[in-house]
Amino acid sequence: MRLTTLGDLLLDVIVRLDDPLVPGDDRMAETRAVAGGQAANVAAWAGALGASARFVGRRGDDAAGEIVTRALRAHGVDVVGPVSGRTGVVVSISSDGDRTMASDRGSAPDLAPQDLDESWFDCDVLHLSGYSLLREPIASAALEAARSARAHGGTVAVDVSTWTLVDDAFRGRLRELAPDVVFATEREQEVVGELDARWVLKRGANGLSVDGHDYPAASTDVVDTTGAGDALAAGFLIGGSELGLKAAARCCAQLGAMP
Fold it and tell me: Element (H or E) spanning 101, and its range?
């Protein structure tokens, strides 16, 4: 299996709390600063699960960019794309097994169609982060990548990624993309609307639903849910529902989104 992803490679600052934050006061926390970004996470998990993985994206030419690039390559991922600008940062706050994120994507959305090399998309599956469809020029780059992947005989998958940011422009780009597989929560599916694709519905602790069947989540001790959906996507694309759920459970049992 050759899997290529396109989207963000960012610095994740993960904050794990035993008790909720108190405005104007302190809480003790366990923290990590690690490589992240949805597309990068999927590539890392694909590599860990035995696939040939490549990440395509624009990443910063700063110290953070060097750190996250080195970390992703350590998972066996081929990292390609322009290097310029500022590396984005996501702060993920985890409490009681749930998480809230504040995202700064840096220069990642500046990836443009002319930055792409067609050979990067000689793959079996191209996986796109929904964040890549939110704004230009990366949205046009994502559509061009999909055309290249299909020209090489590949299929296209996309993770909706967010329900609060889905608007008419996003819906139009998603329909133009015409993905073969769509990963989404039930709420994300609701705001996207009708789409001729295979839906893989992520239901958290309740597992997933696909092709009219419900699959229970694998048993795990939840430490942090950050990246669990990305691990699920990688596993599903490589080996189906069972592998996807096992990868998600493995991700939840650790602090951080990559293997």
Answer: strand 98-106
Three-class DSSP labels, 178-198: CCCEEEECHHHHHHHCCCCCE
Contact 31, 14 (CB under 8 A): yes
**What would the pLDDT profile of 73-94 be if each residue is shown by its tens digit?**
999 999 999 999 999 998 988 7
What is the rounded CA–CA span in Å between residue 115 and residue 81? 7
Neighbours of 141 (CB within 10 A): 26
Q: Count of domains in the chain?
A: 1
The answer to whether the beta carbons of residues 10 and 106 sit under 8 Å apart is yes
Q: Are 9 and 35 in contact (CB under 8 A)?
A: yes
Check: pTM over 0.70? Answer yes or no.
Answer: yes
Give the Cα separation of 57 and 179 in Å (integer).
19
Domain hosting 53: range is 2-6+38-84+108-252
